[in-house]
Write a structure and sequence with these properties.
Layout lengths: L7 H23 L7 E6 L9 H6 L3 E6 L4 E5 L3 E8 L2 E8 L3 E6 L4 E4 L11 H69 L3 H7 L1
Antiparallel strand pairs: 1-2, 1-6, 3-4, 4-5, 6-7
Length: 205
């Protein structure tokens, strides 16, 4: 048998990965139609895969995710997809290059594709690595920004509480002052009412 110099196997793999990408792009645009949902298996050790250490410890070689009811922030690029999913009630963010995918399965119509991870006609381009580093920087910046915003909100709450307390104290002080003046006026009135000479009283009588 002649050697396959065209490498049809790689061409087909790339074409099928492109099909998965197009499917995800359509789902991201219009949502999952009908009963369609996807099981996507991928190698967790493949180049470019980004998952939390918790998931990497739990799935040291490969894992399968389900895109059905609860997923968010689905984004698709030329070389990868990223999505938010919940594992045991804990939200996680995954970044999966298409080259890392081992299988794609839609059980609603019994449609399945199998892949050989890493078997692709194109290696991850240099700009992908740059983008990956940039993504780390962006995530770190957002984390610092969120922390700063939370700190500002706490300081604002403390300042509002202090201002509210100061206002209440000032109002109480003003009310006490008015009450004191009222009591003083009342005492003066009562005192002036009692300044009546006995002689004057006898004359009126």
């Amino acid at each position: 048998m002649a050697e396959d110099l065209i490498r049809y196997d790689i061409i087909i793999q790339d074409a099928l990965r492109s099909a998965v990408r197009k499917i995800l792009v359509e789902v991201n645009r219009a949502g999952l139609p009908g009963e369609h949902h996807f099981y996507i298996a991928f190698e967790t050790t493949a180049p470019g895969v980004r998952i939390s250490n918790r998931l990497r410890e739990r799935y040291p070689k490969e894992m399968t995710i389900v895109l059905q009811h609860q997923f968010w922030d689905l984004q698709i690029t030329e070389h990868a997809f990223e999505v938010g999913l919940s594992f045991g009630g804990v939200p996680e963010h995954l970044y999966v290059p298409f080259a890392a995918i081992k299988g794609f399965f839609d059980p609603s119509v019994q449609f399945a594709l199998e892949f050989e991870p890493g078997k692709t006609g194109e290696d991850l381009p240099a700009e992908f690595r740059i983008a990956e580093r940039d993504l780390d920087s962006v995530e770190e910046f957002h984390a610092r920004l969120e922390s700063a915003v939370e700190q500002d909100e706490k300081e604002e709450e403390v300042a509002d509480a202090a201002a509210s307390k100061a206002g209440e104290t000032a109002a109480d002080s003003e009310e006490d002052k008015k009450k004191s003046e009222s009591d003083k006026a009342s005492k003066d009135d009562n005192g002036s009412g009692q300044i009546v000479s006995l002689d004057s009283f006898r004359k009126k009588s």
